[in-house]
Design goal:
With about 130 residues, the protein is an alpha+beta fold. Helices cover about 45% and strands about 15% of the residues. It is built from six helices and three strands, in the order E-E-E-H-H-H-H-H-H. A hairpin with a 4-residue loop joins strand 2 and strand 3. Helix 3 crosses helix 4. The longest helix has 17 residues. The protein is globular, with a radius of gyration of 15 Å.
Length: about 130
């Protein structure tokens, strides 16, 4: 990490297929890293999740908020006739991140919500609507 800490993680990330990690790099804003595996599998993980996994803690997040936003993103994606992969490409994400979000397993940051709103061509407030 920037502060010189080294974090050792158990491989408990759902997108991890268990094959050898071939590459690991930070995304443009430095808040997300992407893992490339020998199988060709790629997935991205937010830094806050890495820090919390390494510490054995979880972010205090309201599960209902994540589920509500996930359902709304899925509904808007389907209304626009997009697959998860297409939405991911439009928002500059990986498809598994969209799946995790739609499942309510991740409470997105405001920056991620802005990217999704832009990709879905809706106001940001539409993503939080019940």
């Amino acid at each position: 990490m920037e502060d010189g800490r080294i974090l050792l993680l158990k491989r408990s990330i759902p997108e991890d297929d268990g094959s050898e990690v071939m590459d690991l790099f930070l995304e443009g804003d430095g808040k997300v890293f992407t893992v490339v595996q020998a199988s060709g599998n790629e997935f991205s993980v937010p830094w806050d999740a890495v820090v919390n996994l390494a510490a054995g803690t979880h972010l205090p997040a309201d599960a209902d908020i994540g589920k509500r936003i996930g359902k709304r993103v899925k509904a808007l994606r389907q209304q626009n006739g997009l697959t998860q992969a297409q939405l991911a490409a439009l928002a500059g994400l990986k498809r598994p991140n969209i799946a995790r979000l739609e499942a309510g397993a991740h409470v997105p940051s405001i920056l991620l919500l802005e990217r999704l709103a832009q990709a879905l061509r809706v106001p940001l407030s539409d993503l939080a609507a019940a």
